[in-house]
Write a structure and sequence with these properties.
Shape: globular
Distance between the termini: 54 Å
Largest sheet: 7 strands, antiparallel
Strand order of the largest sheet: 2-1-5-6-7-4-3
Helix content: 10-25%
Structural class: alpha+beta
Oligomer: single chain
């Protein structure tokens, strides 16, 4: 008989914030519950498709634009034995800071502007990876973050929320050559190729065709 303790626990999905120069994780955000569903969209980058150029109909300009959407649940009431004086404010703040520059960066830009700097470079964020199991580790940019707070404690701290995340996978077309994120994207693409090769091939006869 299989004991309850012998059943392997499912691994969690999450986000890893990485130093792009050293490649060391700066923060690991583990989802409290794995989302029940994932919505993935791949938009091919066809060459000449808009102009109807017949010589370019089968060419690709680069990797498909891949986006992910899912909703994650955060619930402090599931952890009653863990002190939570701020409710789930800390968990929400960690996610929100993925789409904000830091106050230090904003103050530094204010100082540059006050000193008369004519051109201020956009603020760079750390490299963000989305992890869904060992076979899906990819560099991403967060394109959407929507939070629905559903319950509160007596101090009006949120204690339960649904977080909807939209992600765009960053490919070699989005990152400089040699960037750590570009290498991670190529590894992600190579994993797709290996999985596709493991799927096996069908036969024309199964489609009712003797030949083409």
């Amino acid at each position: 008989m299989t004991r309850y303790l012998d059943i392997p626990k499912p691994i969690r999905s999450g986000i890893v914030v990485v130093d792009p120069d050293r490649g060391t994780p700066q923060r690991v955000i583990v989802m409290q519950f794995n989302p029940d569903t994932l919505e993935r969209t791949l938009a091919p980058q066809a060459s000449g498709a808009e102009q109807g150029d017949r010589t370019e109909a089968l060419r690709l300009k680069g990797p498909a634009i891949e986006t992910w959407k899912f909703t994650a649940e955060i619930d402090a009431t599931d952890q009653l034995d863990v002190p939570a004086p701020f409710g789930i404010h800390p968990q929400l703040a960690v996610l929100e800071m993925l789409v904000h520059p830091t106050s230090g960066q904003l103050r530094a830009n204010q100082r540059l502007a006050a000193a008369g700097t004519l051109e201020i470079a956009p603020m760079e964020t750390p490299l963000t990876l989305f992890v869904w199991g060992t076979r899906r580790v990819m560099p991403v940019r967060i394109t959407e973050l929507a939070i629905t707070e559903e319950a509160f404690d007596p101090e009006l701290n949120p204690i339960r929320a649904a977080v909807s995340l939209g992600l765009r996978v960053l490919s070699v077309n989005d990152l400089p050559a040699g960037h750590r994120g570009a290498e991670l994207y190529l590894a992600h693409l190579a994993q797709k190729e290996r999985l596709g090769a493991a799927g096996g091939a069908g036969r024309l006869a199964q489609l009712g065709l003797p030949s083409i």
